[in-house]
C-alpha cells in the first residue's frame, strides 16, 4: 500500500497519480481530466468566433460587475439589519462570479465594457435606493435582476449548445453553474417577501427594462 502513493496511472494524455484518485474519492469530487490547451475558452478559429466569444465574456463580466455593485448598495443600507447576513451571502457568491470573469477576460485578452464606471454608479444606486424601500424593496430588486441575468445566461447556453457543445464545454459549465446561483438568489428574493412590496410589478418591470438595455449596450460597447 505504501508503494501505491507513488504509483501513477498513465492514461494518455494524462498522468493520474494514486494520490489524486484518493483525494477525489475522499472529497467526492469527480476526477477531472482535460486534455485542452486552454482552461475555459478555446482560441478563436476566426474573427467571427472571436467576436462572439468577446461579446459573451464582456457582457457576462459587466453583469457580474453590476450585480456586485447592486449588492454593495443593498449592504450599505441594510447591512446592519437582520437581512445583512443573507445579502452578504449572495454578494459573496457574486464576488466569486466576478473574480472568475476577471480571470477569463485577462486570460483571453478581452477588454471589459467601456461602461464599467457607469455600472459602478448605477448598480450601487439601484441597490441602495431599492433597499431604502425596506427589505421587500431590496428583495424585489434582487428578484428582477436575478431573473434577467438567469434568462440572459440561459440564452447564452442555448446559443453555445447550438453552435458546438463539445468545443465550449468548459465555458458552458461555468455559465450553467452561475445561472444556478442566480436562480437561487432569485428564489431567495421571493422567499423573503419581494412580491409584497407595493408596486412590485411596476418596479420589477422597470428594473428589467434597465437590465435589458444594460445587457444590450454592454455586449457592444
Ligand atoms: Fe452572479
Ligand atoms: Fe446573483
UniProtKB/TrEMBL annotation:
Pfam family for this entry, one: COQ7
Catalytic reaction equation(s): a 5-methoxy-2-methyl-3-(all-trans-polyprenyl)benzene-1,4-diol + AH2 + O2 = a 3-demethylubiquinol + A + H2O
GO molecular function: 3-demethoxyubiquinol 3-hydroxylase activity; metal ion binding; oxidoreductase activity, acting on paired donors, with incorporation or reduction of molecular oxygen, NAD(P)H as one donor, and incorporation of one atom of oxygen
Main EC class the enzyme belongs to: oxidoreductase
GO cellular component: extrinsic component of mitochondrial inner membrane; nucleus
Membrane topology category: Peripheral membrane protein
Cofactor note: Binds 2 iron ions per subunit.
Names of the cofactor(s): Fe cation
InterPro entries with a match to the protein in the record: Ferritin-like_SF (IPR009078), Ubq_synth_Coq7 (IPR011566)
Enzyme Commission number(s) of this protein: 1.14.99.60
Binding site for Fe cation 1: 64, 94, 97, 182
Binding site for Fe cation 2: 94, 146, 182, 185
Family: Belongs to the COQ7 family.
Function: Catalyzes the hydroxylation of 2-polyprenyl-3-methyl-6-methoxy-1,4-benzoquinol (DMQH2) during ubiquinone biosynthesis. Has also a structural role in the COQ enzyme complex, stabilizing other COQ polypeptides. Involved in lifespan determination in a ubiquinone-independent manner.
The protein, known as: 5-demethoxyubiquinone hydroxylase, mitochondrial
Gene: COQ7
Amino acid at each position: 500500500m505504501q508503494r501505491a502513493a507513488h504509483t501513477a496511472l498513465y492514461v494518455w494524455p494524462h498522468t493520474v497519480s494514486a494520490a489524486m484518485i484518493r483525494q477525489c474519492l475522499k472529497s467526492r469530487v469527480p476526477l477531472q481530466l482535460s486534455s485542452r490547451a486552454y482552461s475555459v475558452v478555446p482560441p478563436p478559429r476566426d474573427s467571427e468566433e472571436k467576436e462572439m466569444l468577446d461579446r459573451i465574456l464582456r457582457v457576462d463580466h459587466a453583469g457580474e460587475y453590476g450585480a456586485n455593485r447592486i449588492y454593495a448598495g443593498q449592504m450599505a443600507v441594510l447591512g446592519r439589519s437582520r437581512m445583512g447576513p443573507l445579502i452578504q451571502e449572495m454578494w459573496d457568491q457574486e464576488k466569486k462570479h466576478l473574480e472568475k470573469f476577471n480571470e477569463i477576460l485577462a486570460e483571453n485578452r478581452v477588454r471589459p465594457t467601456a461602461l464599467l464606471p457607469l455600472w459602478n454608479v448605477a448598480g450601487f444606486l439601484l441597490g441602495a435606493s431599492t433597499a431604502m424601500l425596506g427589505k421587500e424593496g431590496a428583495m424585489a430588486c434582487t428578484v428582477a435582476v436575478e431573473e434577467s441575468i438567469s434568462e440572459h445566461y440561459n440564452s447564452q447556453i442555448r446559443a453555445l449548445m447550438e453552435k458546438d457543445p463539445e468545443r465550449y464545454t468548459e465555458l458552458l459549465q461555468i455559465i450553467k453553474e452561475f445561472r444556478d446561483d442566480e436562480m437561487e438568489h432569485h428564489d431567495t428574493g421571493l422567499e423573503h417577501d419581494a412580491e409584497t412590496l407595493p408596486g412590485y410589478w411596476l418596479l420589477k418591470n422597470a428594473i428589467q427594462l434597465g437590465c435589458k438595455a444594460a445587457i444590450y449596450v454592454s455586449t457592444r460597447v
